[in-house]
Amino acid sequence: MQRGDPILRLVNCDATFVSLSVTERIFNSLQIGETASFRLTGREKVMEGTVARLAGAGAATIYQNLAVAPSEKHLERYDVALLVPELTADRERGCSIGRTGRAFFDERPLNWFRALFN
To answer: From which domain of life does this come (predicted)?
Structure first.
């Protein structure tokens, strides 16, 4: 161990955000504060979120002190962070760090049809 090396990492499950990689086309269409939808893998419920960060391609330095490091594939695309308040509000689910899901930034063609079953 060297002087200045981290000896402990703390996780704050009340400050969870969703980090995702997107194509350049989608990245260029987004703005901070824009609404988004997020669905955890294996769940039906879609949660509302907000674009909180647009970091661009190769944003490795942003992840240096976070609980989950990005994959090499993630770093090849454009980095976006979403705030999804419902992730921290659901105590039954526990801490959502490391979970996966899908994000949506605009209306999908069959949203009207999906709404019939919700």
So the answer is: Bacteria
